Amino acid sequence: MASLSMGRARRFVSNCFRKHSSTTPSPDNNNNNTSPDAKALASIAAEEERKGGAVLVELFSSQGCATSPQAELLFSRLGRGDFNLERPVILLAYHVDYWDYTGWKDPYSSSLWTVRQKAYVEALNLDTMFTPQIVVQGKTQCLGDDEDAMLSCIASAAREPAMAFKARYERPSDDSLQVALTGSVRSKLESQGADIMVALYECGLVNDCPEGANKGLVLANDYVVRHLQKLTSVNDISAKKTVSGTVDFTLWEGFKSSKCGITVFMQNSSQHIFGAQNFKLPDNL
């Protein structure tokens, strides 16, 4: 683990401490003469609703941190379903920029992701920022390369209702993507309110690292957040009320929709997550 003191913005610790969502068919709800299969599907749907939706797992990482590649591998395995979890997960990886000054600039890093991590550090009453870090549902955290701790955080996470949005995509220009979303949050929000956020991420990124802590390694990264935007803010809203909005993303060179997806999630000012939904982008968008 590599850490950064909150009170010393550019004071670095040189060493690192070692130590998708599932879909349920919707039953036809015609009359009292419901078939046994339809009743079974209805039972499954009711159980899924009771259990709640997917768990949002966020990784804060850097190609400039010696232990981040191990965490990235663990994160990719989590996305592949290697751990046979009882609950679906949605994954987002943010590459922070505070290790960009130690020999290698992470090509996916952003100061925005450092600010996002800092918000979690403050909300979770931590003493320092560090990589790699896992945050689950905005409520618990652990070392990103600690498999047992990560799985424990996921297993104990509160399951919020699954969001129910539909997405429509347009390409206004070669370097832009517009996403229109309409649906319900399926959570009752009172005066505190929350923001509905939309992340655009990319998988299957591979590049050489010629300098820095991971010099000579070929680094593989999945679920890398490229953009994060607010769709809208909601408060005093019922679980079924329709919410809609549009976000516009500027695309990067080499963008391929087949490698990308979007995640919609709802987060309040305490950084708690109240539901998430994942969409794989259509091929050849």
From TrEMBL:
Key words of the record: Lipoprotein
Organism in which the protein naturally occurs: Heracleum sosnowskyi
InterPro entries xref list: DUF1223, Thioredoxin-like_sf
Name of the protein this chain belongs to: Membrane lipoprotein lipid attachment site protein
Region of interest (Disordered), residue spans: 18-42
PANTHER family listed in its UniProt record: LIPOPROTEIN LIPID ATTACHMENT SITE-LIKE PROTEIN, PUTATIVE (DUF1223)-RELATED, PTHR36057
One Pfam family it belongs to: DUF1223
Organism placement in taxonomy: Eukaryota, Viridiplantae, Streptophyta, Embryophyta, Tracheophyta
Regions of compositional bias (Low complexity) in chain numbering: 22-37
